[in-house]
Amino acid sequence: MFEQFVELTVDVRDRESQLFVRVGGEGPPVLLLHGHPRTSATWHRVAPRLVEAGFQVVCPDLRGYGRSSKPEPTRDHSAHSKRATARDMLHLMNQLGHEQFALAGHDRGSYSALRLALDYPSAVSKLALLDCIPISEHLSRANANFATRWWHWFFYAQPEIPERVITADPDSWYQGDPVIMGQENYDEWRQAVRNPATIRAMLEDYRAGLTIDREHEEADLAAGKILQMPLLVLWSLRDDLELLYGNPLDIWKDWASDLRGHGVESGHHMAEEAPDELAMTLINFF
């Protein structure tokens, strides 16, 4: 994987955190943020295509995930909030010499991407969010259907129990497939989810989502703060976002002034399952 990339460990925020990051190519910068329970390796079929198209591509492991630092949990979950992760990403890109960059995030990474774009709008030239509507929008619409399909959000929020359940047999819990993921991506992911500190950090990501992250989003919406940069929203047609809400763009209209998007013929992990379509869509947008 990532044959044209270098691997770095970058100190961010006055050495508070260390991020494992892959960087490749030359040209306009693009930052790619992975989702749960993946690492930056999930982009291994997409990132090289962006490099070939003339971009410099930056693929970090989010705080708590993969080989990046795993901060101690805090009572208010702020150590794993999307605001904390967004600051990490801004400092990372600044240290790599980029004051402004294009940004794409998938799943949990999309929430960090959204927060980065809301908190630091001048840093983000264009934003792509994959399989995403804001956390607060999910929760404001939560019903029996949502709770049945997305029950893991509420299970992960419980103290201590999910750590014990998942670490007992992480392979069975997450059920990765090396054929779909690619063997090297699968091996890296499998090593990550066998680390109890990674499991705890990923759960804290979800706990932050239901508490402090939701509060930050609701405050932005109440203040009329919306995305000013061009926004591309993509969603997997063989996942359940459209089943839950219909066209996700109808929800995003309240959050963005320049919006476009469409469904992708894929399961949830579109970077692994539909890399050609995703890469071409991102190249054309960026």
What does this 3D model show about the protein?
With 286 residues, this protein is of the alpha/beta class. The protein has one domain: Alpha/Beta hydrolase fold, catalytic domain (Rossmann fold), CATH 3.40.50. It has 15 helices and eight strands. Strands 1-2-4-3-5-6-7-8 form an eight-stranded mixed sheet, sandwiched between helices. α3 links the parallel β5 and β6 (124-130). α2 packs across α3 and α7 packs across α11 (196-222). The longest helix is centred in the last third of the chain and has 27 residues, at 196-222. The model has no long low-confidence stretch (mean pLDDT 96). This is Alpha/beta hydrolase. InterPro entries: AB_hydrolase_1, AB_hydrolase_fold, Carboxylesterase_BioH, Epox_hydrolase-like. GO terms for molecular function: hydrolase activity. It comes from Arthrobacter caoxuetaonis. Keywords: Hydrolase.
